């Protein structure tokens, strides 16, 4: 009886490991889900190659689609290369494509005509439109850059928009900081709800200034010591 109990216990310990191993495959080949050799609920640790569209849970390694979309319902660690890259969880690595999306945290380099991260971002985000909803730490570069959470780093684009608290540098034709900004804004038009630092541009606007403005027109909403001055304005 004792031997049977020991055997059952060993089975309970060992069997989940075999199940887990069976759920992770080294190679995925696909045409269009569900025409793929590994089912979408399984994970890939190795190489995933697809012609049009493939779906798996977690992916570690290289994921390449020739004419379509890479999709992961979990996390991705590695490189995801395709016209469209869609990761519902977190992404760690490099994600280049026409459209690149991460539903949770992103760490690494995300690029595309449209690059979107719903969670926090650490690294480089570049594209026609670079958009992050969470806390951004790093460099955001594109025609239009947009952050909704806290931003720490460099934002460089034609139009730069930050909605939360920002610390760092804005370089662009138009720089718009809806929250508190600490650092340097350089562009044609610079706006900060609260400016703690230096604005350099043709037109500089802030509702509250703690620093220096240099430009053709400089507006300081707190009116201390001056509401508007050409060339230079200041408040400390």
Please tag this protein with its features:
236 residues, mainly beta, elongated, disordered N terminus
How would you describe this protein?
It is a single chain. The protein is mostly beta strands. The protein is 9% helix and 71% strand. It has one helix and 15 strands. It has one helix spanning 2-22; strands spanning 24-32, 35-36, 43-56, 59-65, 69-72, 76-81, 84-87, 91-96, 99-102, 106-117, 121-132, 136-147, 151-162, 166-220, 228-235. A hairpin with a 7-residue loop joins strand 14 (166-220) and strand 15 (228-235). It is elongated, with a radius of gyration of 25 Å. The N and C termini lie far apart (84 Å).
Topology (SSEs and partners):
Elements: H1 2-22, E1 24-32, E2 35-36, E3 43-56, E4 59-65, E5 69-72, E6 76-81, E7 84-87, E8 91-96, E9 99-102, E10 106-117, E11 121-132, E12 136-147, E13 151-162, E14 166-220, E15 228-235
Parallel strand pairs: 1-3, 3-4, 3-5, 4-6, 5-7, 6-8, 7-9, 8-10, 9-10, 10-11, 11-12, 12-13, 13-14
Antiparallel strand pairs: 1-2, 14-15
